Amino acid sequence: NAPAPMLRLNLKKSGRWVQEPDGLLWVWRLPEQDHQYITGCDPAEGLNTSASDAEPDHDQTAISVFGRTRREFCAEYVSGKLHPDECGEWILPALSDWYNRSRVIVERNNHGHTVLAFARKKIASRLYRPPSDRTDIKKHPDEGYGHLTTKPSRHFMIDLLVKAVAGRQVKDYSAPGIRQLISFVLKANGRMEHQDGSKDDR
User: Fold this and answer.
1) Which of 157, 201, 197 is nearest to 181 (CA)?
2) Per-residue DSSP letter, 144
3) Are 73 and 177 in contact, with CB atoms under 8 Å apart?
4) Are 201 and 78 within 8 A, CB to CB?
5) How many angstroms separate the Cα of 108 from the Cα of each of 49, 139, 198?
6) Which of 11, 47, 95, 127 is deepest in the core (most CB within 10 A)?
7) pTM of the model
8) Mind giving me the DSSP string for 23-49?
9) Do 194 and 180 touch, CB atoms closer than 8 A?
10) Residue 57: phi, psi to the nearest 5?
11) What is the pLDDT of residues 53-71, one digit of tens each?
12) C-beta atoms surrounding 47 within 10 Å
């Protein structure tokens, strides 16, 4: 059984994380001195994906903090109502600051451009920048940051995840995240994604 988080926190306007019963940040491992961390972000707009407004089911922004030293997921922040600008300007910098100024990787697709634009104002030096072997083309500033998910890169990431899970190379304590992993399947159309009625945000 996945352990319950040791803390549930919300970020206040003061910039401090405060413990609350409904805290959106779930913490399983506090930051440790001299340990290295990576903060990954899969942005969403928070749209209602349900057919009913009476029972909304919002597309979720998911942020995970991974401890490179212990090779475990230490914390996660998941919200269906987090705006991309708030994610980039407040949540990601606060999480990165707390976890030893961790490197931050943002998926650049769709709303990731907005997240990155606001994150660059505070933590530009910590944002992941993909390597480039092209010196003859001037990139737009947005293209210099974040990870662009394509069909080949998605397959490559999934293959690495399968190997890591099968070899017990990483530890994940999030019960919702583990449920999403279990519901991740190869469909008849050849696409690897969540089963109908499930999510794969985390």
Assistant:
1) 201
2) G
3) yes
4) yes
5) 21, 14, 23
6) 95
7) 0.80
8) -SEEESS---TT--EEEEEE-----B-
9) yes
10) -135, 95
11) 544 456 789 999 999 999 9
12) 11
